[in-house]
Amino acid sequence: MPVRRSKKISHTVIRDADMQAIATADIHLDALDHNLATIKRLAPNSKVVAMLKANAYGHGAFTVAHHLNGAVDAYGVARIDEAIALREAGINTELVLMEGFFSADDLPLIVAHNLQIVVHSEFQLSALEAMAALTGQIQLPLKVWLKVDTGMNRLGIEPQQFQSFYQRLRTCPVVDREIVVLSHLSSSDQLNSDITPRQIALFERTCTDGSFPRSLANSGAILAWPECHYQWVRPGVMLYGVNPLHPANVDDVQLKPVMTLHSSLIAVKSIQEGDSVGYGATYTASRNTRIGVVAIGYGDGYPRHARIGTPVLVNGVRVPLVGRVSMDMITVDLGPESNAQVGDYVELWGQNLAIEDVAADAETIPYELLCNITARVKIDVLSN
Ligand SMILES: *Cc1c(COP(=O)(O)O)cnc(C)c1O
């Protein structure tokens, strides 16, 4: 028996070594809890719609939905398929389609899966009225969120249409009596802009009587604009540990990254001054040095536009990306004195390397980096 056991252990060790070469996203559930607690501390009188669209910003919608079950008041998604997948995975939490429905054909599915809808257009309101006419006496208490455009100029009815939309929804027999009124902020992450105060003022003027619940705040507004927390806040990116503010200087708020993206070195080589690295030979070494090859690339969602110098952590040491990002690999300058070896741990972003820094060097935003994680990346859910 002891022989067998030791064999088993050595198998495990080999498998673990193999696994380390695979790009992996660790999902830290304790960080999720910490960030949610921060949201509740900042907006203590508001209910929370946790935004789970785009596979929970790349973190795995089922994982996040199961973990937050009972801890938040509702989930928000963009597409009906995302909502149905969550229902089919056994999620019974209130679930809001933030863009409503795109076709009246979706209404039976919305009713069947007990989904809530954002209404932002005449087309949607007419479709609800038509459904009411068809269903006659049958009460289908569909929960509706009415969206007003206060300056984003994307989704939402005009402020002057508000009274008429609100009254029509209130008298529509398939619509639940309690209607949440919402709008979306274009610039809540810009602390020095007057756009947010203007949007808040227009929102207040539009729905003056306040006899219904209201919702305006995304992450930026939860952090920086407490005057618009109202009855419902809608955190997305801050739930996942990213602070969207510019400048990111809210005292006292320490969010924790939920995702740590890591991989490992699969080759190390010495190059000479004047040697170039990677596709297009975009990088030429100015000294003799050691180059590390990391098993991650744009095929995993690492941004191809990350520029030379983008930070990468090898064994906890910050080194620069050099050369172009390939589909399956990136190359980093380990430095001439480095003793890093094949198999060593590499963090691309997360607990020890801010995704904000990587995003800045890839000329994008953390949101896009998170959403772009591809199915090839292994997901490891960790409870601490
Ligand atoms: C995605 C989304 C949010 C969350 O935005 P964050 O900036 O990620 O907090 C809030 N409201 C609506 C309508 C959204 O679509």
Automatic annotation (TrEMBL):
This is Alanine racemase. The active site is at K53 (proton acceptor), Y279 (proton acceptor). GO terms for molecular function: alanine racemase activity; pyridoxal phosphate binding. SUPFAM superfamilies: Alanine racemase C-terminal domain-like, PLP-binding barrel. It comes from Thalassotalea mangrovi. NCBIfam families: alr (TIGR00492). The modification N6-(pyridoxal phosphate)lysine is found at K53. Transmembrane segments: none annotated. Pfam families: Ala_racemase_C, Ala_racemase_N. Its cofactor is pyridoxal 5'-phosphate. The gene is alr.
